[in-house]
Design a protein that fits this description.
This protein is an alpha+beta fold. It has two domains: 3-57 and 198-247, no CATH class; 67-193, no CATH class. The chain is built from six helices and 16 strands. The strands form four sheets. It has a five-stranded antiparallel sheet, with helices on one face. A five-stranded antiparallel sheet has the order 13-12-11-10-14, with no helix packed on it. α1 (3-37) runs antiparallel to α5 and α1 packs across α6. It starts with a helix and ends with a helix.
Length: 248
């Protein structure tokens, strides 16, 4: 039997089987590609995958929560860029908090450069950046006689609405300070505050093969080349059969 006939038999035998596997690969690339083209509409850059194995796969070390800020009936625990305010997750990529204060109609959380204003129901009302603050960095947040107090590098300031500020005396201020979590609380909040990876990044890495590590993109490239060869061989077999039928 000639090598040419052997090649034809081999291609016909394996072409369908290999073709089905290639179709799965092609559909996978197509679906992930379409989804990535609509990242903004789907909000994939603001959605996160929170799983310990995903964090380990990306080499992200998890920070264990050890402290809580408490004021009145409210508490705040933070780790891995995430906050839990009154048992409710409050978003992603948050800075480390430096204190929590409860006022008459809102709860205020401070970072070194921002103030986060929450309603008593835990819903974020507003975020005040450095331009709206009397000074930065913020060193401490506290309360005195129903006034919100900030200690900054420029001095100590007070406000009744977190919008207008004036210099304040340094006496009789209850500054917010962290309290240690118990071992049980630390374990519970560690599960809630697991670090996350954005869905957009995961899909991009899966689509390109980088999710599989250093050689992942090479494997995807080889599969793409293989799919091209499969398509060309399929076309060759089709025209070969057509040519034979025309001759007969």
């Amino acid at each position: 039997m000639s090598p040419r006939v052997l090649l034809l038999l081999f291609l016909r035998r394996w072409h369908t089987r290999i073709g089905l596997a290639a179709v799965v690969f092609f559909l996978f690339l197509a679906v992930t590609g379409v989804v990535l083209n609509h990242t903004a509409e789907l909000g994939l850059d603001n959605r996160y995958v929170h799983a310990s194995w995903v964090a380990r796969w990306y080499g992200i070390s998890a920070e264990r929560p050890r402290h809580a800020f408490r004021s009145g009936g409210h508490d705040l625990i933070a780790a891995n860029g995430r906050w839990v305010l009154d048992g409710r997750l409050s978003g992603e990529k948050f800075p480390p908090p430096i204190g929590l204060v409860e006022l008459a109609d809102m709860v205020v959380v401070a970072s070194s450069t921002s103030l986060y204003l929450y309603g008593k129901d835990g819903v974020l009302i507003d975020r005040l950046e450095r331009n709206a603050l009397p000074g930065v960095p913020v060193q401490a947040i506290g309360a005195s006689a129903s006034q919100l107090m900030l200690r900054t590098a420029s001095g100590t300031f007070e406000s009744s609405d977190a919008l207008s500020w004036k210099r304040a005396p340094r006496d009789a201020i209850a500054w917010s300070s962290p309290a240690d979590l118990s071992a049980a609380e630390g374990e519970r909040y560690a599960q809630m505050l697991e670090p996350g990876v954005s869905v957009q990044r995961v899909l991009l890495d899966v689509h390109s093969g980088r999710f599989a590590g250093r050689y992942g993109p090479l494997v995807v490239d080889l599969l793409a080349v293989f799919l091209t060869v499969l398509s060309l061989s399929g076309a060759w077999l089709f025209f070969k059969r057509k040519h034979r039928r025309e001759r007969h």
